[in-house]
Amino acid sequence: MIGKHKLELDTPCLVIDKNKLINNIEMMQKFAAAKSKQVRPHAKTHKCVEICQLQLNAGSIGISITKPAEAYELAKAKIRHLLITSPIVTKHKLATLAKILKLAPETMIVVDSEANLAQLNQLGSELNLSINLLVDIDAGIGRTGASFDTAFDLALTVHQHRHTRLKGIQCYAGHFQHILGHDERQQASTALLNKAGQLKQDIEQATGLINLIQSGSGTGTYEIDSDIASVTEIQPGSYTVMDKEYFDIEYNVGHFQSAMTLLTSVISANHSTHVTVDAGTKALYKEATHPQIISQNGENCDDLSYEWHYFGDEHGKVSGGNLPNVGAVIEMIVPHCDPTINLHDKFYVVEDDIVVAVWDIALRGKLA
Fold this sequence. Notes:
Layout: E1 13-17, H1 18-34, E2 38-39, H2 49-57, E3 63-65, H3 68-76, E4 82-84, H4 91-103, E5 108-111, H5 114-127, E6 131-136, H6 148-160, E7 164-171, H7 182-207, E8 213-216, H8 222-225, E9 233-234, H9 244-247, E10 260-268, E11 274-277, E12 292-296, E13 299-300, E14 304-307, E15 316-320, E16 329-333, H10 337-341, E17 346-351, E18 354-360
Parallel strand pairs: 1-17, 2-9, 3-4, 4-5, 5-6, 6-7, 7-8, 8-9
Antiparallel strand pairs: 1-10, 10-11, 10-16, 11-15, 12-13, 12-16, 14-15, 17-18
């Protein structure tokens, strides 16, 4: 594959423009540094060891990840300073966590209940170490996280246990990330994270600990949250490659570039209204937002649309006024990058549209 033009690749496939990727990573890092914030980017988006390493090389303080199986792959690849952002409860996941901590004992984990805290303290005792914990705060999603009413007492208990070490709090508002209007998004996120910051201050005063972490934020609120004094680090993920959902919201600073695109080929053109392509729901995660077609056969176009009418697992429908011929390659920005990436095995990395590397999506399918 190395040396081929991207239009020669078999489809459907994911292509990453390396220069745009690096630009996005460096842009985020410089922005955060100017605001005196750390970046602990979330690898749930790209699921790729090579991209993690680029982020660390650019100055990220560590890597955020959701599942123990994902974290274990990163630890084996010598990616350090991990934050696992979802509670680890089952015996199988706790066994995986034990393996992670043996490779990377500085790893941090979130906790949101007394019951889970007891499990983690017991694991720390068995491993003869103190496990680094952030108290996870429910940001209003109702998904994970302790309530603001219970988080203070939970933090004190973490601090009192012999085999756990309180490092701070996490408050991630995923439901704010795609609020279209910047002002509405800013108002919501600022109110929430200031409330979390007051909680952090109360915990510091009660425990005598200083400089506790306040982690959270995403691609939709990174610029807003970086102006909040109590926030110490941000966890954006999609900024690396971007997607249509994030291009649709209002930012007050410059946009990141569409570093990742999906290529699909026209396989049937027997109708005047549409053509059929080889990317269905097995290649492209279905959202209410449609993909944005940006080119056919390398030529810019704005008159084609990928429609979500039911064309099946293997096929997609492209309509428009200037329909492409059989064999044409369609390039598009995907609606939602995280789950789309999880459908693929590899990234084809290009410079000037020529493949220069093939990177495994090593965390793909690591759901446990």
